[in-house]
TrEMBL record:
<feature type="transmembrane region" description="Helical">
    <location>
        <begin position="6"/>
        <end position="23"/>
    </location>
</feature>
<feature type="transmembrane region" description="Helical">
    <location>
        <begin position="140"/>
        <end position="162"/>
    </location>
</feature>
<keyword id="KW-0472">Membrane</keyword>
<feature type="transmembrane region" description="Helical">
    <location>
        <begin position="30"/>
        <end position="52"/>
    </location>
</feature>
<keyword id="KW-0598">Phosphotransferase system</keyword>
<dbReference type="Pfam" id="PF03609">
    <property type="entry name" value="EII-Sor"/>
</dbReference>
<feature type="transmembrane region" description="Helical">
    <location>
        <begin position="93"/>
        <end position="120"/>
    </location>
</feature>
<keyword id="KW-0813">Transport</keyword>
<feature type="transmembrane region" description="Helical">
    <location>
        <begin position="64"/>
        <end position="86"/>
    </location>
</feature>
<feature type="transmembrane region" description="Helical">
    <location>
        <begin position="207"/>
        <end position="235"/>
    </location>
</feature>
<keyword id="KW-1003">Cell membrane</keyword>
<keyword id="KW-0762">Sugar transport</keyword>
<keyword id="KW-0812">Transmembrane</keyword>
<feature type="transmembrane region" description="Helical">
    <location>
        <begin position="174"/>
        <end position="195"/>
    </location>
</feature>
<dbReference type="InterPro" id="IPR004700">
    <property type="entry name" value="PTS_IIC_man"/>
</dbReference>
<protein>
    <submittedName>
        <fullName>Mannose-specific PTS system IIC component</fullName>
    </submittedName>
</protein>
<dbReference type="InterPro" id="IPR050303">
    <property type="entry name" value="GatZ_KbaZ_carbometab"/>
</dbReference>
Length: 279
């Protein structure tokens, strides 16, 4: 189990730490994390399925300032680890991932708002000395410390929590497990609902209902619905482009007419002034 805990911690360090090493590269998204965890534990299919489901859950969570709604990396790694190494049902693992993500958010806020602030005087001192080497060392040192601590949290969670979770799953009644599975199925809908609250508008509502009809009544797979959406986007873009070109031509024609009218008016004024002069 020690090797499993180490591999889980390594996955967190690679995805979470690597995401912020050269800027936000988006490798901390659950879809990527699940694939990496599945690759490490030898079951990419399960990793991708869990990552995609958690992506649907966490995609609508918005982090504002220092407040984090959830930390998806640790949640995805632990859910994938429990599902692959312990044989926990995928839907039950998704239900367990949500509270883990909330706990990870508290740890992240503590690290960023408390622990990292300890190094603020050193950063100010390096800035006063105009020492780029010291600033670089502090930058990578704090980066390594922050994500090493997160990796250790994951390591001990897997090491200490694997057997209790396995025992808990074994003791869960069948009806309660069915409830966890149903909850796990509903969580992606909650994530999409949170995202739609930010994106909803009257202009976009017809496309939403079109997608709903295609998926619910025509029973088209999500890939087909996405393909239809891409086609609609392309057609809309082409139509908007044609309208913009027509407007540009109309403006050009109006400007040309105004220019001709201005030149004609100026010529008439000049002729009138000339006639008045000789008169």
């Amino acid at each position: 189990m020690g090797l499993t805990a180490f591999l889980a911690a390594l996955c967190v360090f690679i995805c979470f730490g690597g995401n912020w090493l050269w800027g936000q590269t988006m490798i901390e998204r659950p879809l990527v994390v699940g694939m990496v965890a599945g690759l490490i534990f030898g079951d990419i299919r399960t990793g991708v399925l869990i990552g995609a489901s958690l992506e649907a859950i966490f995609m609508g969570a918005v982090d504002i300032g220092g407040a984090l709604s959830a930390e998806p990396v640790t949640a995805t790694v632990l859910a994938t680890t429990f599902a692959i190494t312990l044989g926990v049902d995928t839907k039950a693992a998704l239900a367990l991932a949500v509270p883990i993500g909330v706990l990870g958010a508290f740890i992240s806020m503590f690290m960023k708002n408390v622990v990292m602030n300890i190094f603020a005087p050193l950063v100010d001192k390096a800035a006063e000395k105009d020492s780029s080497k010291m600033l670089t060392g502090l930058h990578y040192g704090m980066w390594f410390l922050n994500y090493t601590i997160f990796s250790l949290v994951t390591f001990f969670a897997v090491l200490a929590g694997a057997k209790p979770v396995q025992h808990l799953v074994g003791q869960i009644p069948a009806n309660l497990m069915a409830g966890l599975s149903a909850t796990g199925s509903l969580l992606p809908a909650v994530g999409f609902a949170i995202l739609m609250r930010m994106l909803w508008s009257k202009e976009l509502s017809p496309y939403y209902f079109l997608g709903f009809i295609l998926a619910a009544y025509l029973e088209l797979p999500s890939v087909a619905v996405a393909g239809i959406g891409i086609i609609i986007v392309f057609l809309q873009w082409n139509r908007d482009k044609q309208l913009m070109e027509m407007e540009a031509k109309q403006k050009q024609a109006v400007n040309s007419e105004q220019s001709v009218a201005l030149k004609t008016s100026q010529a008439s004024i000049a002729e009138q002034e000339e006639e008045d002069f000789f008169a």
